[in-house]
Every structure is written in C-alpha cells, then in structure tokens.
Design brief:
The complex is a heterodimer of chains A (358) and B (650). By secondary structure, chain A is an alpha/beta fold. Chain A is 46% helix and 17% strand. Chain A folds into 2 domains: 156 residues, D-Maltodextrin-Binding Protein, domain 2, CATH 3.40.190.150; 148 residues, D-Maltodextrin-Binding Protein, domain 2 (3-Layer(aba) Sandwich). In chain B, a hairpin with a 6-residue loop joins β1 and β2. Chain B is globular, with a radius of gyration of 24 Å. Chain B contains 25 helices and 2 strands. A two-stranded antiparallel sheet of chain B has the order 1-2. The chains are: A alpha/beta (358), B mainly alpha (650). Chains A and B meet through α2, β2, α3, α6 and α7 of A and α3, α14 and α19 of B.
Chain lengths: 358, 650
C-alpha cells in the first residue's frame, strides 16, 4: 500500500517536472479542437474559423487548431456536450453565442451547462441597428410613438436574439405587430426590402454592408443602435455606429427622463450585454491547467497586434474589440446573472404576449 | 456588364487560378464519392488553404469544389443505391434499377452529361440575369414563396405510384416527419420526446441515407449476388449520351427549374432537384417505366442539381442570404477578404462574381467530363458480389451519418430510418413523395404563417398576380387529370387479385398508428404550432384508415423488394426475412459502436459479413478489415472526420 502510494507520488513528480526540464511549450505537438455548437457558415462558425489560424500562430508550440461543428438544439446540444465531456486539458474549447446564453439565463430546463464553471479565453461583441421604412414617417426616435402606419416587425423566434428587440419595444412602449417565423435575419431583411415589414434590426456588420446602401437610396432610415454595455455596466453608443443614438438616448428623447431603475430597462440592458456586447465567447472547461489558459490568453493579446489579424478582422470583428478572457470574465458572468425580478419580468412578458411556455 | 465580363475573363484565365480551380474540383470529386459527405466537408477542408491565396484564386478553388460535389455523388446513388445526398435521391430511384439491369454505364453517362449541360446553362443564365436578379428576387413576396412551396408539394402528385392512396399518405408522412423539431411560427418544440437531440428536427442527410441508402444496401445484401443481375456489357455509355441528346429539352427545363429553385429563397436545393424529377414524370406521356429505371428520371434532376448550386450564388452574393451551408462558407471566406456581399457587390465586385460563375461552369465541365470518361470503368463495380463490398459501404454511411451532429442519436436515427425505409420498400410504399413532403414541410408551414400574418386580410395576398399564376400551375395538372379520368371512366380496370392479409397490412397499421398518435399529441400544442401537424396527421389518419380497410378486405399489395421483376411470393418472403436479419445486424453494429467505438464495431461486423456470409477465408477477411480501419484512420486524420468513441475506451 505504502509503496504503491510512493510510486504514484514519484510518477506525479516526474510528470510534473517533465515540461519544466524539457523546455517544451505546453501545446507543442497538440491539436486544439474548437467546438462550434452551430452549423457551418453561421456567425459563430465564421468567428471560430477566423480565430483558428491566429491561435495556431500565436500559441507557443503552434498546436494544430481545428473547428468542429456540433449543431443541434439551438446550440444547447453542443454546449451540453462540452459541459459534460470536454477534456480539461486545454485541447477542447467552445465558442458560444448570444443564443447559447439566453436559454441559460432564462433557465431553460434542457440546459446542463454553467458558464461560471468554465474559463473564458476571449470575448468579442457586436451591436445592432434598428431601422425603419420611410413609409412609417419615422425620422428620429421621438417619432416612434406616432408612426404614420402600424409598425410590423419580422422575427425568428421570441426565445432567441429577437428577445432583445422585443424588450426594446417594451422599453420604448411601441405598438408593434411582431411576425415570428423567419429563418434568419437575412430573410427578415428581404421581407423589409419587399415592403412586408417596416421596422427591422440587423447586427451592425450586416447593417453596414446590407442596409447602408438602402439608406443611401432612401429606402431605409436608421433610428437607433441597440447600444453597447461598457465595463462599468453603463450603456454607451455602438462603437461601429457612433453617429446613431443608443437605446438609452432614444428613451430619453422619447420620455424626457432617464430609464435607470425601471424593471423593463434593467431587463433590456442585461440582455443587450449578454446577447450582443459579449456575444462571441470562447471557453475552456473548468480545471484546465493554468499554463494552458495562460498560453491561450496571451495568444489572444498578441494576435491583436498582427497586421493580418487587423486587416481580416476589420470585416469579421467589424471594429469591436476582442477582450482577453481573464480580464473580461467578471463582466461576462455579471451579464449572465440577472436578478430574479428581471427573470420573472421576461418570462411573464414571453408568456403573456408571445405564448412562450418556459 | 461587358467590361466586367472581360475583366472577369482576365482574372479567370490565369494559370495559377485555373490550377487552383482544378485542384478544388479534384477535392470536390473525391469528397463527393463518399456517401453523405458533400459541400460542407469540402469547403471545411479547403478553407484553411483559401486564406493563404489571393481572392480570385481562392474563390476559383472553393467554387470548383462546390460545383462538382454533386457530380460524383451520382456514383454511389447509381451503383449501390446509396444516395450521396438528398438531392441525389431521384438519380438513385431511377439509376439504381438501371444498374441492376446491367445499364450502369448508360445511367452514369446520361447523369454526367446532363449534369454538365445543366451546370453550363445555370452559369449562362446567371451571367445574363445578375444585373436584373435583385429586383426580380425582391418581386417574390412571402405569398408567392408560399405558393411555390405548394407547387413543390404538388409535384409529389406525379410520383404517387400504382396505389395513389399510399402515395398520398406517404407524402403526408413526409410532411409530418418534417414537423419534428421547432415550430417556425410559435415557440414550441414538437415531437421531441424529451430528447434534446430532436429539438432541431431530423436531419435531411440522415433521412436520405436511412430511408433510401440503408434500405437499399439491406435489400441488396438480402438478395445476394452482384448489383447487376444481367451481364451484357457495352453500348451503355454511348447510349447514355444519346439519351441526353434525345431529351435535350428536358435537360434545359430541368436546369431552369433548378436554377430558379436556387435563386429564390424558401425552396432549397433538394426540393429543386425533386421538383425537376416530378416535372419529368408529369410531362412524360408514358409513365410506366418511372421508378423502374427510366433515364428521363435521371436527366432532369441531374441537370437541375448543378444549376441549383449556381442559382444559389445569387442570394448569397447579392443579398448575403446563403441558401445552404456551403454557400454560407463561401460567404465567410469572402468576408475575410473584405468582400461584402450585398447590393454593392454588383457595382464594386462584378468581375469577381463573374469569376465565381465561370469557375463554376468550368469546374462542371472538368468534373463531369472526367466522370463521364470514367463511367464504363466504374460500371464494372456492379458485377462484384455485393456482400464483398458491403462493409466499406456501410461503414461510410455510418460515418457520414455521424458527421451531422456527432451525437450518438445520429446513428440511432440512421438505423431507425433504415428500418422504416426497408419496411416501406417491401410493402410497396413510394418513398419519393415522402422525401418531397419532408423537404418542403418546414418552408410550407413557415411561409404559410408568414403570409397570413403579414397579410392579415386574405384578399391582400390571394389576389396578387404571382399567387394567381402559381396557383393555376398547381391546379392545372389536377384538372387535366380529372378531365382525362372522366373521359376514360367507361373503361373499367381489371380487378386486382385478392391478397392474403400479411406484412403489408402490418405496415399500414403502423403508419396509421403514427398518424393517430401525432394527431392526438399535436392537439395539445400551441395554436400556431398545432395547425400543420394536426391537419397533416388528421388527413393521414383518414387516408391510412381507408387503406387499412381495403387491405383487410384483401386488396393489399404483395410483399416485394424488387422495383421491376415480380418474383415468387415464397422467395420474396424468404428475402425479406433475410433483410430483417441484416437490419438487426446493423442495429447490433450500432449498439457495439456505443460500447467499443466505431473501429472495433466495424471490424466485428465486417468479419461477420465477410466470413459468415460472403465465405471469404479468415486471413483475407482479417486483412480486408485491417485495410478498412486503416482507411478510416486516414479519413480521421486527413479530413478531420470524427469517429464515434466507445464507452469502453479501447
């Protein structure tokens, strides 16, 4: 018994000493797998595939980095898989999106993951822009209260990213006919262009490439940005759409007072933070060795100075900063923890107005 | 436009880019041969290399790959009846019986040639229509898109087979299967039985692999011998080329259907191909050969499936709305080069668009040309005893199924769908309408609700000119059919021979059970989630109940696992029993995978088939299995294919 214990101790000591004595970087000869819980081609997939070659380049030891798509259950399946099966040795990472966090925040029963138990590697966000058709007669946020025709919005599903837009409509007290059922924001935008809907939002990158040309032709009018939540927990303007008022300013313009303290405002702002500001997060399982985490996080810091990263990132990241995981983790986790009254407000709203049973 | 065309020619005709194009096409062809693997795998493999190339060369490479993945998936569809993708199912339905008649070379040649022509027509059409495409696409509102899905579903009407009642029920079963998962218009997940795996619905590739691929492989195994049952070689190749010439207008119509299905959102690539198939059947005077190896049933969908991919480039590039995952990946690659799809692309990057379009056409010529030349050689595969080549084929299908979500549920679904597919096959249920129903179920429901919610007053959408025109297209064939039926009513059909109540009635009862259960369950859904499954299941319950009564009265169809030759009832029963045993062995295979992982389970299963069934000697069988596993490892390490791991880590 004693001798076996001794053996184990010797073995552990030897293994622990190996990397130190051999001067081999932790990741030398390893393969890192980034699990994307969405189908190929989506935003999270593009994000992961964009980061992969730069991780290969900047993580000491130059591991091979591959992307593995595990779609299903609106990303719950892949995230559950990661929570239950991922090796805590830094060779399996997970990319999550806003639609992975919303079910977690709302306490959907199928969710078996808890980001608080993971280690954050990097996070980068995105904004959103709300725009209307000229037919509505709306030119600025104040006009939203009295549109020339009934506002019609095309959404995907009330429990996805559209939840943020629905909360925005509540905050601004808008009377909008919401039509759910589009396959994605792209088809919803086509419906706007066809004149079937007259109020729409796109993530800021999609807005800049797809909607700005319409704005120039006079077929769309931008009204406000969904806003960006900074590290102090204050909503500021979208860094990629700095000319547009944020939802916070829009509220002030409409109601001539600040929204702070209102329950529906608290709900909206926490969802903006969780679903937009911290949209694309990359995680390692809890218990990952510190040297692995250090290597990954330092790589994120170093790739940001790479001219190629900046050049290609201009389109993929669209001017939003990539934050190092250890620095951003408290803010990200704060965004996923909503108070009970906020959660109740959201579930009540979904149940009463959008027939969602949670 | 003319300047852009010449600029594109300059960009395009450059040795490096042409080399990249050829390289991409080679990868695409190789990936396409593996059943169930298509554009996504090809794009994923090429993506890392693309980022190291300049934009035009990278685009040429990835377009080259995507253009030809549907070209080579014809091989497995025709030769072994395992559709390489859902879009290849019509080719399998018609091409595989031809292969069994010893006409594999003819089927392959016809498929490749029409593929080639279809791709070129698609590219030509795009070149002409890109400047107009934007307003044209925008003129199709939700009501028109809804009517298009209705039109697509109505195309199943020409594929009902000998027993229209069963055909209709099969179509409804497909629609019902398509409602599994999230409801488009209400926040509710349907028929998931508490499984997270089912909350996104059933994957199309799995449905094609299971219902058709597994069912066919099992019936080939049960039949024994080689795929080809007659052994006259020759003249097939040239014959196939002549077939395409004879049906040249069908090629053009098929390509146009495919192109538009790709250009317009909502319908999707698979449905476009199936619609071209339905169109071929509907416009043929003599329909008796369809389903038994009619070359027209290969020509139209093969012309369509390449044109679909070309058409799909329009919403991808002009609107940033990709029609499928492969084009979504092209989109991601474009982003990395700072090329933003959208309205501005026509003014800023028209030359690049034309480069993509013409890379597409050239890759088609390359890929189809190579395969066309190789088809006589490939056709010889149909003379090898099937049980000797079954192990790698089954392994490839299991592997392909597992790539969908890499959840063990993929394998369970594959076997379950395989059992269902085989049962439907032997009891004479047409699976074509089922597939059409499945593919269009979601768009049909989605665009129905979008239409009625966006246009609250019915007259606002029902009277739109587009809706009226498409509506007439839907109704016309049925009116014509009714007219003909009225005129011919005097001729009475000979009474079919009475059949004893058998397995067929059991299958019908099972389908009735599915419909009944779904009806009962769906009543508890939210109103907007219930409408589709309730109406489909109610109609299905009524139709299958009528069918069951007919069968109990002795009007059922006999067991059959052939599409053509009617064999002795006794021999058929014997074969079906063997088929059931093979299905059970596949279930054991998957169960073994759960415990010991795919490598060892495949070794066990193939040793059993090779030694126990094919009577191969032990040393040869062991070497064969070892070679197979080596190939598996190669796939895993080179292509990054994921292998199911066992619970016992060996």
């Amino acid at each position: 018994m004693m001798s076996r214990l001794l053996w184990v101790l010797v073995l552990v000591a030897a293994l622990g000493a190996l990397p130190a004595s051999g001067q081999q970087p932790y990741y030398a000869g390893k393969t890192v797998e980034i699990i994307v819980p969405f189908a190929p081609g989506g935003g999270s997939d593009i994000d992961a595939r964009f980061f992969a070659p730069f991780l290969e380049k900047y993580v000491p030891g130059n591991p091979r980095v591959i992307v593995r798509n595990m779609p299903g259950g609106g990303s719950i399946l892949g995230a559950n898989f990661f929570a239950e099966n991922a090796r805590p040795d830094g060779t399996q990472l997970l990319v999550t999106s806003g639609s992975t966090m919303i079910p977690y925040i709302l306490g959907v029963p199928q969710v078996r993951y808890d980001p608080a138990r993971w280690e954050l590697i990097k996070v980068n966000g995105v904004g959103g822009v709300l725009y209307v058709s000229p037919r509505t007669g709306v030119r600025k946020p104040e006009d939203l209260a009295r549109p020339a025709e009934r506002l019609v919005y095309g959404g995907i599903s009330a429990t996805g990213l559209d939840l943020v837009t629905l909360l925005l409509f509540e905050v601004l007290g808008l009377d909008v006919r919401v039509v759910m059922g589009f396959e994605g924001r792209g088809p919803a935008r086509l419906a706007f262009e066809r004149g079937e809907t007259n109020i729409d939002y796109q993530t800021t990158p999609a807005y800049l490439s797809q909607v700005v040309p319409l704005v120039r032709e006079g077929k769309a009018i931008p009204i406000l940005s969904m806003g960006f939540v900074n590290e102090k927990g204050v909503m500021v303007r979208d860094p990629s759409a700095p000319d547009l008022p944020s939802a916070y300013e829009a509220y002030q313009a409409l109601f001539k007072r600040k929204p702070d303290g209102l329950l529906r405002w608290k709900a909206y702002q926490s969802m903006v933070a969780a679903a937009f500001t911290f949209q694309k997060a990359m995680w390692a399982p809890g218990g990952t060795p510190p040297e692995a985490l250090q290597a990954l996080r330092t790589a994120v810091e170093r790739m940001k100075t790479d001219p190629q990263f900046r050049e290609q990132g201009r389109q993929v990241l669209e001017g939003y900063e990539v934050l190092r995981g250890d620095l951003a983790k408290p803010a990200v986790l704060r965004a996923t923890r909503v108070t009970l009254d906020v959660k109740k407000y959201i579930t009540d709203l979904l149940r009463s107005k959008y027939q969602v049973r949670l | 436009m003319a300047e852009a065309l010449s600029a594109a020619a300059g960009l395009f005709l450059n040795p490096t880019r042409l080399g990249m194009l050829a390289l991409g096409s080679g990868v695409g062809l190789l990936i396409g041969i593996l059943p169930g693997m298509g554009g996504i795998v090809a794009a994923a493999i090429l993506l890392p290399f693309m980022l190291k190339l300049e934009p035009a060369a990278a685009l040429a490479m990835v377009t080259g790959a995507l253009a030809v993945v549907h070209t080579s998936d014809t091989i497995t569809s025709v030769l072994i009846g395992a559709p390489g993708s859902a879009a290849a199912v019509p080719t399998m339905i018609e091409g595989h019986p031809m292969a069994r008649r010893g006409e594999a070379a003819r089927a392959l040649a016809a498929a490749y040639l029409s593929s080639l022509v279809g791709g070129i027509i698609g590219a030509l059409g795009l070149t002409l229509s890109i400047p107009l495409a934007r307003p044209l696409v925008l003129s199709f509102g939700s009501p028109e898109l809804f009517m298009l899905t209705v039109l697509g579903v109505s195309f199943a009407g020409s594929l009902l087979g000998r027993e229209p009642l069963k055909g209709l029920s099969a179509g409804l079963l497909g629609l019902l299967l398509g409602t599994v998962g999230p409801a488009p218009a209400a926040a509710e997940v349907r028929f998931a039985f508490g499984q997270v795996y089912l909350t996104d619905g059933i994957d199309l590739a799995l449905v094609a692999l299971g219902l058709f691929g597994v069912a066919e492989v099992v019936s080939l195994l049960a039949r024994g011998g080689a795929v080809a049952q007659r052994t006259e070689l020759g003249r097939g190749w040239w014959e196939g080329a002549l077939d395409v010439w004879r049906h040249r207008w069908l090629v053009i119509r098929g390509a146009l259907i495919g192109m538009w299905a790709g250009v317009l959102p909502a319908i999707g690539a698979t449905a476009g191909t199936l619609m071209a198939y339905g169109h071929a059947v509907a416009t043929s005077r003599d329909r008796s050969r369809f389903g038994k190896g009619d070359v027209r049933g290969i020509i139209a969908p093969e012309a369509a499936n390449n044109a679909v991919e070309a058409g799909d480039l329009v919403p991808t590039l002009l609107f940033g709305v990709p029609g499928g995952a492969p084009s979504a990946m092209i989109l991601g690659a474009l982003l990395a080069y700072g090329i933003l799809p959208g309205p501005r692309i026509v003014t800023q990057h028209l030359d690049l668009i034309y480069t993509v379009v013409w890379s597409f056409a050239l890759a088609n010529v390359l890929g189809a040309g190579v395969m066309f030349a190789a088809s006589p050689l490939l056709a010889r595969l149909t003379y090898v005893p099937f049980n000797r080549i079954a192990p790698p084929i089954v392994l490839a299908m299991v592997l392909a199924a597992f790539q969908e979500t890499q959840h063990f549920g993929d394998l369970v679904s594959l076997v379950a769908l395989g059992v269902a597919g085989y049962a439907l096959k032997v009891t004479g249920w047409p699976r074509g309408p089922l597939l059409i129903g499945f593919v269009l179920s979601n768009p049909l429901e989605r665009y129905y609700f979008l239409t009625v919610n966006l246009y609250p007053r019915p007259e606002d959408w029902l009277l739109r000119p587009g809706v009226v025109v498409i509506g007439l297209l839907v109704v016309a064939p049925f009116a014509w059919g009714a007219f003909r039926w009225l005129r011919q009513r005097t001729r009475t059909e000979p009474e079919a021979a009475r059949q004893p109540i058998g397995a067929s009635a059991v299958a019908t009862a099972a389908v009735l059970g599915v419909f009944g259960y779904a009806w009962w369950t769906a009543r508890g859904f939210l109103a907007n989630a219930a409408l589709m499954p309730v109406s489909v299941a109610a109609a299905g319950t009524v139709l299958t109940a009528v069918q069951l009564v007919r069968e109990l009265r002795g009007r059922s169809s006999p067991l059959t696992d052939e599409d053509e030759v009617e064999a002795e009832p006794h021999a058929v029963r014997e074969r079906v029993r063997r088929g059931a045993a093979y299905l059970a062995s596949l279930a054991l295979y998957v169960a073994a995978t759960w415990f010991v992982g795919l490598r060892w389970a495949s070794v066990l299963w193939s040793l059993w088939v090779l030694v126990g069934v094919a009577r191969v000697r032990w040393p040869t069988a062991v070497a064969y299995a070892a070679l197979m596993v080596a190939g598996l490892e190669l796939l895993a390490s080179v292509l990054g294919v994921h292998l199911p791991q066992g619970r016992l880590r060996l």
